[in-house]
Amino acid sequence: MPRTYKNSGFAGEMLVAAELSRLGYEVLLGNVGKKRTMGVDLTAVDPETGRTAAISVKSVKERSSFFLDPESVRPGVVYVFVITNGAGQQPEFFVARGATLLADEEWVWGKWGRTYEKRDSRGMSSDLLTNWKNDWSAVDA
Hints:
The protein is an alpha+beta fold.
């Protein structure tokens, strides 16, 4: 019987950590694998400059909406949205600073954004993130 995974959050965090490592960053793991982590999941450190970037990982198994309340977005944090896909398939990474997301809030979250009553359902379509596909430069900004 083929296995299926249920924890796309843990898979997403590990995929982001691996990709950052492949890009030459040192990666410090935060609350990896726990449900309901708050704020920062990883820290990326540039070994040449010592500069650090706080990373928040949001992941889904397949293309769908990422649930992220605009009220919880922190401008200085780098948000990495990951579509993990299945085993044997390549993940997709979309990288943006919180300040970038908040700069055009209505475009990112839609016209209801902060006013949508169901806070846990405030999300953004993965189709909107294409501008930030593999834009790892946000880590250095």
